[in-house]
Amino acid sequence: MNDGLENADLIRRASEGDKSALDQLFCTHRDRLQRMIRLRMDRRIQGRLDSSDVLQEAYIDVFRNLQGYVNAPSTSFFIWLRNIVGLKLAEVHRRHLGTHKRDAKRDVSIYRGAWPEVNSASMAAQLLGQLTTPSQIAVKTEMRLRLQQVLDSMAEVDREIIALRHFEQLNSQEVADVLQMSKSGASSRYIRAMKRLKEELSEFSEFEDLT
Length: 211
Description:
Number of helices: 10
Strand order of the largest sheet: 1-2
CATH superfamily of the largest domain: RNA polymerase sigma factor, region 2, helix turn helix motif
CATH topology of the largest domain: Rna Polymerase Sigma Factor, Chain: A
Structural class: mainly alpha
CATH architecture of the largest domain: Orthogonal Bundle
Strand content: under 5%
Shape: globular
Distance between the termini: 35 Å
Helix content: 55-70%
């Protein structure tokens, strides 16, 4: 049985109430979902919660809404699952930080809900973590601040595309589905955004191989 058929069988069984099948689906996608949560979780609550806490809460919503997805799938299962988890993360933010955390003008709308936007501090921390050792990061405050400035100066959709492709590691079709763009448009925008990021950070040799 190929992966596509196996995945479809697990989705069908989970929608019929088989929790072991749902557990397998979560296990399959856990790493990608945790990357998304860590990137978007507000730093003020990271000491209280981690990505596993959010996934545990989202599990119930997935189980409750899975039959609806099976009856009318509008996108891939992973993108649907990611959306459910993202909306749960937004709910967690409201619960812990209060309703003032929500600012519709700063959110990127996805499907019928609004997610916590990706922030430059989290992106900078993860990017520096990929490029340098922890000891180097500690002494490169200038690099971190410059990286955050560049990210903050970018259009929200460009910052989001970098987050989706470079950090969450979604492919171009998945990015297009998430942002409701054409595949070619999403790919072109990602290339332009990464080119600008590299050009703006050309003073730092660590970013030369950024792809």
